[in-house]
Amino acid sequence: MLEIAVLGLLGESPMHGYELRKRLSTLLGTFRAFSYGSLYPTLRRLSEAGWISEEEPIEPPSGARSRRGKRVYRLTAEGKEHLADLLAEVGPDAFDDDGFGARLAFFAQTRSDIRLQVLEGRRRRVEEQRDGMKSTLARTGERLDRYTRELHEHGLESVDREVRWLTELIEHERSGTERGNER
């Protein structure tokens, strides 16, 4: 998930670590907590794989508070290919909370048929979650106190809302594909 997010953001523009960290936090904060301690090891691994390059640090202007220059990271041609391969993979990790959020953030760079597969897979996953929640609530609902029951019903409403949202996205994606719109 972090790999897709880093490569996707660097595909938009080169940036230094601090800027990348801020953009990742903004992007992934919606979907999950982002561990800053995982960013630099990920950048090192992506660099070693040849998917990103590190440019010499930019020296801060004289009189600036920071004395260290900032290393700029840039997506390489191999990195672009690797990102395209990652975005084209449709497996269970593309449907879970973390993987889906990162994928959705870069849907504009993903082929329409792959977007549709990811959306349908996510909807199946959320429908299974909803069915399990309904079953649990039906089994234990009368034994729960009022507040715990309300909490479970609130969770069920959230999942129902996500299923409706995914259904709308799927319908929109299908209508775009039917018109021959691949992106």
UniProtKB/TrEMBL annotation:
InterPro entries: Tscrpt_reg_PadR_N, WH-like_DNA-bd_sf, WH_DNA-bd_sf. Residues 6-84 form the Transcription regulator PadR N-terminal domain. This is PadR family transcriptional regulator. It comes from the Bacteria. The lineage of its organism: Bacteria, Bacillati, Actinomycetota, Actinomycetes, Jatrophihabitantales.
